[in-house]
Prior knowledge:
The chain is an alpha/beta fold.
Amino acid sequence: MRVALINTNRFVSPPVIPVGLEYLAGPLEKAGHQVQILDLTFSESPSGDIKSFIQDMDPDVIGFSIRNIDSVLYPDNRFFLEEIADMVKVARDLTQVPAIAGGSACLCSREALRNYLDVDYILYGPGEKALPEKLTAIKNRMIPPGVINGYEAGIDRYFSHERGRFVDFTPYLADKHPAGILFQSGCPWECSYCVERKKPTVHRDIGSVVAESRSLHDAGVESLFFCDSEFNLDLELSKAFLENYIEKGPGLEWTAYFKPAPFDEKLASLLRKSRCTLATLSVNSWELFSESNPHNIGSVKKFIENCSMRGIKVAVDLMIGYPGENKVLIETALDLLANAEPNKIGVNQYFRLYEGLPVMRDLFSETDSVELLGEVENNSDMLRPIFATALDPEWLSLEVMDNKLFFIEGSGRGVNYLRV
Length: 420
């Protein structure tokens, strides 16, 4: 079967190699299908390129990768779905074969996103087993149009992906941006504002991931970014991976997101030995003051101290302003984090709202103190960007304006590895 995969992500601040499509291509090929990827990130004529691609390949099925609905931050927000829907229409005007949308955006919305894009199927979660398993039934329209749960099929833990074979890395590597790689999928944490909350967690085979890192090195990649929700979901597993990576990996520098815990000195030492150059630490201000919370200020300080003493930079991604917090608590949190001396603190006071998240309940229980921003009217499915905040942005600006350690998220574009 001929499978056309199209990367619709054209956001280049920074450009991101479509790792999700690479993770689909190998398993699909292994299952006996012909696979081609059209990468539109740097395309000067997306419509023209789609037309040529479809006409030349004459696919049996088309898959569209949707990385993000929008750029998530406020006020400097970009909505991507209009352009993506146009891309889908160009392809569907040329052929009536089944169309599937997948990618991380599908964690934010299912049926509403399917209807907006006018595709037959939404596949959310990992697709590397689910898509090959269901492809014949999809082609023959034996599965009614709707939503496919990729978590039910899981992943092939031992499949070692040969990176750079289906996608040309050259334009991505021009400015030495890192290449994404995945060790663990899912997240056990229950952050009420996050679309990845409580998703089934599964780790890939350590040797297979290390082999993939070597293939990235062979493809010209100079640094890695681990796409795990947080790298240290499992402390002992993280250590085991790094020990193998140090011994058998290509020696590339790397970065990742972390939680303050679980963490210990041995992991910090392995981070240093494995050439981790930056740890981005996910912190919620309302968790800092609870002694029973594993992500309290004590854990944050311990993480920063252990990294800093080993020459590893730490950037803090800080969420503030959850219902029940007041300005005194937030001022205290900002002071505590500043005194912990990370390299940068990005502060976000705006919650991007999506259907069904618990944050909706908590925010709207305090309607008098919550302000809605963005596409507030005629947006019940929340596909168009809608944000909530319980804080005055002018107050926050005045609070941090004299400290260069802080950066207010949404006030400009960029990523942590370019800021520190």
